[in-house]
Amino acid sequence: MVIYGVTLLAICLLVGTFLGEVLGVIVGVDANVGGVGIAMLMLVLLVDYLKKNGKLTVKSQEGVAFWSAMYIPIVIAMAAKQNVVAAIDGGPVAILAGVAVVGVSWAMVPLLSKIGKDKTEDFEQEMIGGEANVRDAK
Amino acid sequence: MFEMLSNVFVENGLIVSFAVIGVTMYISYLISAKLTKGKFHGSAVAIIIGLFLAYIGGVSTGGEKGLSDIGIFAGIGIMGGGMLRDFAIVATAFGADFNEMKKAGLPGIISLFFGVIVSFVVGVSIAFAFGYTDAVSLTTIGAGAATYIVGPVTGSALGASSAVITLSIAAGLVKSILTMIGTPFIAKYIGLNNPRSAIVYGGLMGTTSGVAGGLAATDPKLVPYGAMTATFYTGLGCLLAPSVLFLITRAVFG
Fold first, then answer.
1. Could you tell me if B124 and B181 lie in one domain?
2. CA-CA distance, B196 to A131, in Å (whole number)?
């Protein structure tokens, strides 16, 4: 049933948000620490597990897929409720700080993704070589 | 007659938002296809129209919640609010590849720390250039440059003035809005086209709404990876800014 997928999603979000709050209290911060991220990890692992065991029917998957498809409309609604006036009224300090931060962060994306990429690519190449050797031995 | 119509709209707020957003998207995709020949993604157009509507709403009501401050559009506030946003973000993980997430775990964590620290340093430098010299104000504005939540959380923890806290929120909002609009333009220049760079992107930018909107307009497949790290950013910022980063700022500026 479609609702099973929606329920799965709801439980993941609730558990994740709760754990995020707990994590916040543990590290002594007045904020949710990664609640949504934890919920996403939970969903990925649960869907994987349920699919492998044939417990997640196509109908149930539709319940999750619907909300995934509603993501962009929801983001547009989110844009329409931003406090754009305050951002513009913040004056030169706020605008310059925001623009500079975004610019510097953009510049760092290729640097940091490179670090990760090189490592994993080397790793993958080794893996492929390793597998080939095994096959040759056989 | 008008009152009756307006009552129907007010009583069915969330339904109105579905209709309004749907029509907005239809127009946006039309603009994208006809005027830009598909070069400029439809959802990017829609987000810009959304921000423009938010500006109109803010100017006409003087409120803080954009278009949703106008009575008949209050449902936009529910649809675009934190609850449904988080629900839909988690749902995007449905198609995500766990192995990709695991592989990018280390660069993701590194980018989170880099993201918070770099944003903070840039924010503090700009504030200093504009004549702020006390450690509390500098830290608060630097924290606001991380996200518009880290700013006020840090500011109230350190006892910053309300003017400085407002400034820190504004800096965070500018960052968030610019990330939403700019991501699809900058994506190809910074190699933002795979899960790994999306995870790094989420960690560096950190603004959940900015990353979520920006990646949606770039390539919806990247959303779960970017959103994943971005949701840890605000927490990390609230942890570092009022503590370690404040102590360092105070040591440097006295």
1. yes
2. 24
Q: Which residues of chain A lie closer than 8 angstroms to B65, CB-CB?
A: 81, 83
Cβ contact (<8 Å) for B80 and A64? no
Q: Tens of pLDDT along B204-246?
A: 998 888 888 888 888 888 888 888 888 888 878 887 888 888 8
Closest CA to B213 of A84, A86, A113: A84
Which pLDDT does position A118 carry in this prediction? 52
Distance in angstroms (rounded) separating the CA atoms of residues A16 and A22: 10
Q: Decide if B89 is inside a domain.
A: no
Tell me: pLDDT of A134 over 80. no
| Alpha helices (H) in chain A, listed in sequence order | 2-26, 35-52, 58-69, 71-80, 84-89, 91-137
CA distance A135 to chain B (A): 24
For residues B25 and B143, membership in a common domain is answered with: no
Are B91 and A67 an interchain contact pair (Cβ–Cβ within 8 Å)? yes
Residue in A40, A81, A87 closest to B77 by CB = A81
Cβ burial of B34 (10 Å; 0-12, 13-18, 19+) is exposed
Domain span at residue B22 reads 2-80
pLDDT of residue B108: 86
Give the closest of B106, B114, B125 to A116, CB-based. Answer: B106
Does B149 touch chain A if contact means CB atoms closer than 8 Å?
A: yes
Whether B88 is covered by a domain: the verdict is no
The answer for residues whose C-beta is within 8 angstroms of residue A103's C-beta and 6 or more apart is none
Question: Cα–Cα distance between A52 and A46 in angstroms, integer?
Answer: 10
Please write the tens of the pLDDT for every residue from B173-210: 889 888 888 888 888 888 888 888 888 899 999 888 88
On whether the CB atoms of residues B192 and A114 are closer than 8 A, the answer is: no
Asked whether the predicted pLDDT for residue A116 surpasses 90, the reply is no
Structure tokens at A20: 């995020």
B87 pLDDT above the threshold of 80:
yes
Among A75, A122, A126, pick the best mutation site for testing chain B contact (most B Cβ within 10 A). Answer: A75
**Based on the domain organization, do B105 and B226 belong to the same domain?**
yes
* Residue B162: predicted pLDDT: 78
| Co-location of B246 and B130 in the same domain | yes
pLDDT at position B139 is 92
If one counts the domains in chain B, the total is: 2
